[in-house]
Amino acid sequence: MIDVLIIGGGIAGIETACSLQDLGYETVIVEKERTIGGHLNNWDTLFPTHRPASEVLEYYTEETRKRALTIYLNTYVTSIIKLDDGTFEVNTSRDVIFHSKTVVIASGYSLFNAERKEEYGYKIYDNVLTSADLEKKLKTLNGEFKTPTDKVPEKIAFIHCVGSRDEKSGNHYCSKLCCVTAVKQAIHMKQICPQADIFCCYMDLRMYGPGFEEMYREAQEKYHIQFIRGRLSEVGENADGTLQLKVEDTLAARPSKIKVDMLVLMVGMESPQSTALFKETCGLQCAPNRFIQPNDHHIGSNKTNIDGLFTAGTSIGPMSIFDTINHAKASAITIKNYLSRN
Amino acid sequence: MENYFILPFTLGMITLFVILFIKYGLWIARLSHIDKLRIIQCIFTRRTWDAIVESVMEGLLHRSIFKRNPLLGYMHMSLAFGWFLLIVVGHIEGFLCYGTFANAPWIPIFFQYFVHYQFPGERIMTNLMDFLLLFILSGVLLAYFKRLNSKIFGIKKTTKLKPFDKMAMIALWFIFPLRLFAESATAALYGNGGFLTNSVANLFILIHVTPTMESILWWAYSISLGLFFVGMPFSRYMHILTEVLFIFLRHYGIKLKKQFNSYSRIQVYSCSRCGVCIDVCQMHVANISNNQSVYILKNIRDQNLTDRKLYNCLLCGRCEQVCPVKINLNDLRISQRIRATKEYNSDYAFLQSLPNETPTTGKQPEVIYFAGCMTHMTPGIKKSIVKVLDKANVNYIFMDKEKGACCGRPLMLAGQYEAAKKLIDFNRKKILESGAPVLLVSCPICYKVFRDDYELGQITIKHHSEYFLELVEQGRISLKKSNSSIVYHDPCELGRGCNVYEQPRELLKKTGTLLSAKQEKVMSLCCSGSLGDLSLSMPDRNVIKAETLKVLLQKNPDVLATACPLCKKTFVKGVNIQVKDIAEIVANAME
Amino acid sequence: MNTEAKKQIWSSYQKEIADNNYYYARSCIRQNFFPASEVTFLRILREELNKNIFDDPNHTTCTGIGYHSDIVPFDTIQTVVARHFALMTEAGLENVAISCVTSFGMYTEILDLWHHFPEQLEKIREYLYKATKREFNIPKNIAHTSDIIYKFRNEIAEKAKHKLINVQTGEPLNVVEHIGCHYAKMFPTKGVGGAEFPQVLSGMIESWGGNVVDYPERRHCCGFGFRNYLVQANRGYSVSNTKKKLESMKPYKPDFIVANCPGCAMFMDKWQYTLAEMEGVTYDEFGYGIPVLTYEEMAGLVLGYNPWDLGLQMHQVQCEPLLDKLGIKYDPKAKYLDKNGNQMPLPEKPSCLKV
Amino acid sequence: MRNFGFTTTKSRTIDYEKIDTRLISYILQNEPSFNACLSCGSCTAICSAGNLTSFNIRKLSLQIRLGDIENTKLEIDKCMLCGKCLLECPRGINTRNVIMLIKKGLNIIDKNEI
Question: Which of B346, B410, B529 sits opposite D77 (nearest CB)?
Fold first, then answer.
């Protein structure tokens, strides 16, 4: 019988494991991919400091190694079953059955599939990327930045709220991080393509965290990034392969068309499919936004409706790395309280 | 043949006089007719005497610089006054020797070379001349040091030089040492030196000085003089004589106009670049050191003034207070702004179509009150003014209670003179139509323009600090003294702009304990909010403001009082203590 | 562009289209401005596809123009449409094939209204009965005539004499397709491909060998807009919209435009003349303008019908350069002969647009 | 050209390819803070000129960005430079300098110097 089984080896899972180890508990992490770190593996730099994501990743890799954490890679959970004695039986794809006193769902998020917004032309027009694609491109950038059609971009547009705050995508909620990510990426693009005109088309700019607003201001003042308040309606392709965007400049109250060489869609966060599976196998309660419903929004955000089943990180909704790590640490303490009481 | 060395000096001097004659002639000729009449009328009055006295005190003795900085003052004085005496005494020496003052101009300059024989008073004169030379040389030595290290003079920055300036300066540096060496060489050969030249001559004898060497040294002396004279009209040393001209014209009552004219030019050329204005400028706090008045005047002369420099000035007027030559630095700068923006003044055609309603009170009003844009942003001040007026039972008209045009001063500060006139005409008409004998203003920015540019005839213009003091003195309101300590910040436009320093202090003394600040009254610091500056960024303003607050709050007062809504708005976002306008303090202290 | 993904999206919505036995509802504009189009449609259905379609001499306008210009009350219009259903019912038919896109929109809207407000349907039944003593059944299937051609596009392709290929270069022709707004923008599920990606015309073009041009203003209105055209002072608005579309498609060098709405075809054709006269601009490379075809005319050309029988001489932008590209033989002398072989009066030549 | 009793209307669409950037570039070059505008409108709400006329500096700043030089010429003359907006702006934009730069910019555009 293990103390805590952690589902997900992203930063939330690893941080929970580290904190729990410090508190003297035995943990096992189950990770579906072949490496730990989750989405961070595909990210180039982090807001608001533009520090390389690899630094954070290296920290957690090193912690994992130092602490000799038990991690099952290439393993995904197929069901969580709560037994009568209050412990959990967790079945996995590997024919390994775990018995644990508690389970932490740190399964994170999945990115919105931009193909669902057909009118934005993702996977149809070559020069339409998602924010995640751009990060991958930047991470492996070697030499000059070029668009997928091999052009040094002169105009780039970032579209906020793709798959977020959009009834048509089925997501009413705000993904919270896309705004600041767009600003970060816009600055990055301006730095590597100083000749490019960069547009950000937004509905609202939600610069909620420390340093975010300052970065936004820097983007305006120093990098001359143009922020257009209006949501992209439609993308067309011009005869020369450039993209034509139709966006209303709502502040000017006039429709506008913008010709760009590259379009970056700021895809939002969605609850991963696994959450639905957990919901099915153990009656986990989910919020209308499909993320896990915290037992109490204010004083029990790590708890779920099932006693002994906890959450860490973005499994309950969009969160920054900063918030995720804090949430994971909080999860460890919540679990300690639970285990010492039972 | 051997006397040809006087040629560089003579040619240089002739060139100098010709150029000066033409320049000054043109400048005076271009003065307005009225100004010329002023000169003619005043020339045989006491004003000329006053001008002479000031010329001596400032042009030669440099009293003002002395007061601010004795070392710098000594340097300027030794050069100017010492040289002046050298010329005067040189002529006396010539007189003693030849029995006439009508000697060739080079005789006193190269006297030692020409006169190797005894004449009455020769020993005294020679030693006196040596003493004067030593006096000047001490100044030259200081000048060398100043170039090398301006900090020992208490100056943070010194001015940068152009080629002509450099030439004239280097020539100037060489003139007196060369004179010393040339005279010493002559003394070594003929034994006609004084205490100084003989001492140097004793050294020269050791190295066997020859007549050729003597000749070379006199040539060099003459050349450096000639170079200096030629360079002078094109360099900053032009100020030496222009300053005197300026002092005379100023004494004759000639005033600077809004337009840049010949008098402005005389002022520009009167700047000695002593650098005192650089020192007092608050812009240093924000590491801005290219826009101080001395640089602007230099840029005007060199015709390379950029907009950024021109507009980056708070127009606080501190530099004007310390300028030893009393140049109208603010107005000069504004006249440049007028010139730079004259092609795009607005006509405010919309003013014509506004309903022309002058509010009335039914009875004959005592006062018409103009709050102005800034007071409308500080409702606390507006409310307090109204409260005091009501309490004192003043029958007043509130001119811009609902809607009002700006007073025009902000435009004026930006150089939009023609545009400002349109607003002035609009407001002026309303004020005159009201029939009130007193115009009350609560914003020093408005106050300044009403006083200087509105031509309101019989109407007296009063800032609320003046008016409220009158109300107290007339017993129409009475104030209760509290035990809070107050420090008063002089707004630039009210203090240096309109010379109102005492009334606010009188009022404050009646409501609490007034503390003094380290720099106050004429040298009060600017809050940094000034509308005079168009290009100063907000972060830079905040830095300057913090420094001002540091000075004001040194004695930990309970209240920071000011008499300007803009100063109040500026300070309020930087401090934790109460920032109050004098109107609010009075309104609170009323019994 | 990833054309595969694009095609997939554009074919993702389909609708049910009756297979046979149609009641034909004609179009005012189509029969006036493209007089051979409807004849060609009937010919294709009857001769090429062996379908039963009833062309009823008793049916009238749907009054859509009156409706959209606010001069015919909605109850009246419903009764007129109800009469058409009565005629269909009397003819023993259940499927309507509607030639006009605006009529198609009207019919669809009225049926939807009756579906949600059955009392309205009862009222209209009563009105119709009082006025004409007729009764009617709700049609089983409503299709626009372009839907029917779309449904049988592959059959037509099999019989094709010409493909939409430039015979001189062997390259597919670049075709701009334009869908009438009332076809699917009001009721997306009633149009093939929905509102965003209607496939009805692009399906035909691709089946017949052409290349569909995807240009930025593809979904923009043709500029007709009823009220904007009907009031002369507003026509500038109408023509400006057409101009926006034409400017957007110009860089793609389209060989022709095809529309499923008669109004669209008419305006995109005629306004090219107006714009040429007003501003001296043409939207092709050589100053002839871009030919505008109805889908019936396009199908007719593919099936090898005589272009003069298709009425192409009645268009503003002349079709000869297009016929040359398609490799279709035509007799220039027969262009303006009437069906009896008599010379018709020749049209005036425009001052700018080449003919 | 023939008169049909109607003409084409100019599109209201902002075409970023055709924006006249002379004025905005001139302003930004000399006053980069202008780019930090959030369109919050506080400048406009407090504006002295706005109290007397239809002057709307927020709208104007957008129009300048969109290259509407003709309208800017008509509007900018209403500003009295009083500086209330300067005190109000949450982004610390040097609005008075912006106004003077607009005036100067328009002047040098007229002279074809930019």
Answer: B346
